[in-house]
TrEMBL record:
Pfam families for the chain: Terminase_6C, Terminase_6N
Domain Terminase large subunit gp17-like C-terminal: 148-292
Alphabetized UniProt keyword annotations: Viral release from host cell
Lipid biosynthesis as UniProt keyword: no
Annotated transmembrane regions: none
Organism of this sequence: Notodromas monacha
Domain of life: Eukaryota
Lineage summary: Eukaryota, Metazoa, Ecdysozoa, Arthropoda, Crustacea
Presence of the UniProt keyword Phosphoprotein in the record: no
Protein name: Terminase large subunit gp17-like C-terminal domain-containing protein
Amino acid sequence: LVTLVPGANVLIISPNYNLSTISFELQRKLIKHFDLEISRDNLKDRIIELSNGSTIRMGSLSTVDSCVGRSYDLIIFDEAALGADGEAAFNVALRPTLDKPNSKAIFISTPRGKNNWFSRFFERQIYQLAETQICDYVPSDGDEAIAGCDPGYRDPTAFVVVVYQPSVDKYHVVDEYLKSEATTDKHAVAFQELISRWAVDPIFIDSAAPQFASDLAYLYDIATIKAKKDVLPGIAYVQTLVETNRLVVAPHCTHTLAMLDQYRWDTKETLTTEKPLHDEFSHMADALRYALYTFTL
């Protein structure tokens, strides 16, 4: 349909020469099937030009440099999971050619495990922490310890301690607690230990748990502040911290690390808006979001 617009340019990129040849022959068959008028069919350069001035070009990762220098309305990246250099080819060479307001790129591939760049498109992972963002905490002047708490009973109660380091403008997850089907007394003992260890203040708690917050305050002298509950804006903020390397996690915080690796969007087709999947990882995710997102507001 894109090529029916006069003067449109389409690029179909494949991992190698052989797949590019197959793709070229397929385009020829489709054009013939739909009885589109061709003004030029160049097998050597793999370019088809329609009578309305629209072009379809074929390319491969090995010849991606020959595809630049043009403006494309559509790029189709075929068998994207096969090419080891696909991510660099798209980001460096091809993405700048999508310079029109309605330009698009379509990535097509069969998932081939997680050991390739294309896997990030289909796994629905919300956060992705780089290895360099997993390191021990080194104190600096002006550091401030905060915490987030997501209470539960049958579901786990999550408590995460985050140190904000203004000298580098980063947040460092330094400690955590995750326990299900425990009494408030047991939770409070664990909280008090973490609060004393890190001099935590303030603590942001799920606003939907007023009784738990009240018990912490009156029975255990643990003051808390109601956290902001905006899920999508909160997730977006934490994503920004992760992507800009402003969130760091201590290696021993295994629950937080597992959450950052496994926390994902719910894929139910009946959903009208995006929401994270409610599972074993969502409680630590909520606690971390409460701490980071509420602290900034």
